[in-house]
Amino acid sequence: MAQEIELKLAVPDDALAQLAAWLDANGESKGEVTLLNVYLDTPERDLARARAALRLRRKGAQWLQTLKTAGQSQGGLASRHEWETEVDGEAIELQTLPDEARALLAPLADRLAPVFRTDFVRRLWIVQHDGARIEAGLDCGTITAPATQAQERIQELELEWLSGDENRAADVLHGLGARLQAVAPLTPSDLSKAARGYRLAGVDNA
């Protein structure tokens, strides 16, 4: 099980160009990738009530399944548990998950179905800041909830902790965030893509 630590910042339209230019100049560009994602839950929204999110992601020819469990988010900084494994196609494969994740999903497996989608292009950079290695991902796309015919834009920057002194992760991420906020008018966001998707689908307690 990995622990994901990231700072999420909302990006207005007029900030995209200067933000990308700063990252090009101060980070190592890793190109861009199109990510197509479907989130699943039971009709009773058992995962949403447990503050968990289950996702199938297509990344090029590769399919990944990811389970994220309840974490904390404040001032845009989130810390949560995450399990991710490769699968053969657009279907959950419980046997490839570790015991803790499988125990949560097994009782729900026969009732899981798509609830919403998040599809976006991610531009990536690796940034060295204050002794740490951080991945900056600029995401632009849409969240769609077919049941309510609702759609919402994705335009955000995720600063994900990769390596360094983890005890200083929050301070370092906030430090880089403050540096970027001096470059462009970014604002912290505490809502994950999954929480926004559930909200569009009419689930308030995600």
Automatic annotation (TrEMBL):
Family annotation (Pfam families): CYTH
The entry's keywords: Hydrolase
Domain CYTH: 2-204
GO molecular function: inorganic triphosphate phosphatase activity
Stretches that traverse the bilayer: none
InterPro entries on file: CYTH-like_dom_sf, CYTH_domain, YgiF
SUPFAM superfamilies cross-referenced by the UniProt entry: CYTH-like phosphatases (SSF55154)
The protein's Enzyme Commission number: 3.6.1.25
Transmembrane listed as a keyword: no
Identification of the protein by name: Inorganic triphosphatase
